[in-house]
Amino acid sequence: MKDGTPTAAAPRIDVPVAITAARVLRLLEVPAALAVVVALWQVVSVAVGNKTLVPPPSLVLTAWVELVHGDLRDDVLASLAHLALGYALGAGTGLALAVLSARFAMLESIVDPFVELLRPISAIAWIPLAILMFGISAKVPVFLIFYAALFPIFVNTVAGVKQVDPQLVRAARALGASPRLILTHVVMPSALPFVLAGARLSLGVAWMAMVAAELTGSDAGLGWRLFWYQEFFAMNKVMAVILTIGVLGFLLDTLLRGLQARITRWSPDASRDDAR
Amino acid sequence: MIDRRAWLPFSVVAAAMVIAWQAGVVSMRQQALVPYPVGVVEAAVRTVKDGSLLTATANSLVRVLVGFGIGALFGIPLGVVMGFVRPVGRALGPIVDSLRSIAPIAWIPMALLWLGIRGNAALFIVAYAAFFPFVINAAQGARLIDRNLVNAARALGAGRALVLRAVVLPSALPAILAGARISMAFAWGSIIAAELAMGIKVTSGTSGAVGLGQLMVSTLYVRRDVNALVLYMIVIGVISLFIDLAMRRLQRSLTPWGHS
Amino acid sequence: MNAKIEARSVSKTYVSSRTGERVEALHDVSFSLQPHEFVSIVGPSGGGKSTLLSLVAGFVAPSAGEVLEDGARITGPDPRRGVVFQDYALFPWRTVLGNVEFGPLARGASREAMRATAQRYIDLVGLAGFEQRYPHELSGGMRQRCALARLLANEPDVWLMDEPLAAVDLQTRNILQDELLRLWGDGEERTQRRAVLFVTHGIDEAVYLSDRVLVLGRRPGRIKEVVTIDLPRPRTSLRNSAAAGRHIDFIWGLIRDEATRAIVEESA
User: Fold this and answer.
1) Domain spans of chain C?
2) For chain A, which terminal residue's Cβ has fewer other Cβ atoms within 10 angstroms, N or C?
3) The CATH number of C1-80+158-166+185-237 is which of 3.40.50.1100, 4.10.520.10, 3.40.605.10, 3.40.50.300?
4) Contact C60/C25 with Cβ under 8 angstroms?
5) Alpha helix ranges (H) inside A104-219
6) pLDDT one-digit tens code per residue, B183-200
7) What is the ipTM of this complex?
8) Residues of C with CB under 8 A from a CB of A
9) Within an 8 Å CB–CB cutoff, is residue B205 touching chain A?
10) Which stretches of chain A drop beneath a pLDDT of 70?
């Protein structure tokens, strides 16, 4: 300072340290919470005393490790196969129908009421009929997933195409763009965030439909395996499968969310999580 | 919703399809194997008369309502706290997200073990399914409230609990109601799934009250009545619609000052 | 000299699809735009200024009369008549470079030609270094420049501008006005300049920039007066001159009553 007294330099150094400390604490919050949950789980398990009724975390972990080297691989693959096929068919059909309805008003006036009428009948309600039609086989989950995935994609794509800013279309026309170019370079990019939101919703319902369908109507996959272990009362293995279902579903959603964020980088509010 | 102008072409196409469907099945003499419109109507008359349809529907609905209530009871407070108190939200968020990805009916084996077959396992599944939309939406609503309102309450001497109860909760109400709508839809979907799963997989012991799901299973495996199956599907759909309409009505009447 | 753009007894009536109400936006409007002149359109709110621009752009067709470009009737939008919109209408999913090269892309230019042209105009408007930014990352003034570069990259004969400077603050607006004049060729030979049709609410802006000012009345929109601005070019030193002030007062006197009425009616 001007009158010769030294300025306190300490505060200026502490700030970055404080920021780093806060950041570290933040990173620890999630593992800490997980640890608390596992600890509670262990307490409950010990309190109940019955290893079948409430399998302790350690037993579930060993069961999980055992399964990973064994049947789990096949189950996961089977489930993912069901999901991939059903989702591709459902989302593809939904997308195609949506784009065509947006283009041809006559088609829309027929398709839209059908969709509105079928939508309340959830995929689950189709299970008995599907079992009757296809028997206990992989076709049941694939059909269910197809049905479940179709609607969110259809609805969201239609909404996305409809909200394209007409001003942007006019700007493209004034720059000399052909109708085809307008479709590919203006309408589709503009509708993309909506389509992706629909894709995420579709994945969510498809995942649930998959579990329900496999549980009741197929002979392979994670859902089916749940009851298989239940019949032996191997509850630790049941828990392990449940956790696998949860983690896998979470991973798939995170993947899609990452894709969504990357593709819609250009929008200031695109990565906001409003598709919950 | 459906565009008014589309009613005419759609009705014509739909009516034509129904007639063609009926005629086709009858002409090919497939009445025993394939569902057809008149058969579905017959099944409707039959199951209403002998009470099976109405009883089953009532049982399912009761489970839905109770499960919904439980989900709300636990979900709303947790969500509000998670949304309002940031560290709690950040800590519990990933856990809630992971649990959410576990489809409710995956818990059936555990639920059956813990709560037994007399319908309580199904109740647990419904409550589980209804719980999460409440948490998510209540948290969102609490997160987005105007901090000025909170500060105003604080400046007037309100303690943390009162602030939560009297400011945060009402402010988050629109979001909570939006969550209620989703919860209800999930609850209805899960009860059917749970009842179906229990009906198919649990082959021994008493089955407790018969809901729509179990009715569908017995029709599938015992009576093999396709028409009844289609009828039940339509009933499930119609109830879905009613539920959604009712929730929307409720949402509008409880938040006259505007909703999301 | 033949007019670049000519409107002959143009009328435009809108029918509300919801209520069936008929609104006559323009009534019997005739004017011509010469090849190298800058013409502004001013008038009270709701006076049909934007409608007139839309007609010349080719986004809508007149209910009566015709609009001609080089003697031929206008039937739709065309890159020869470039447009700058009030809220820029930049493609949010394309970078600055992506937006500016859209015109050449639409017309089938090769990738190198596209890029080179776009870069040239990006540099010209002063956005060098921002090529990879997205519109939402730019300030209002910069978005305006991007919209301008996008227009210029197509090298149109006619520039149609719908209140392009309405959304920026006053200081930025003055700077952008001078830049617009520079790009247009305010300090160059007259034959270097293109025809411009410029819609604005600001009478001072209109007087500052233009060779002529079309003053529209409202309900229905019609031409009250065409004022010739006889100020010399380049205009940069004449922003607050007394001569400019006289023009501004005159034009304001023409529309003051209607403008006042418009404020009341719009809010009701």
Assistant:
1) 1-80+158-166+185-237, 86-155
2) N
3) 3.40.50.300
4) no
5) 105-118, 127-134, 139-162, 166-174, 179-182, 188-217
6) 998 899 888 888 888 887
7) 0.78
8) 57-59, 76-79, 81-83, 85, 87, 89-94, 102-103, 105-107, 134-136, 150, 154, 160
9) no
10) 1-15, 267-276
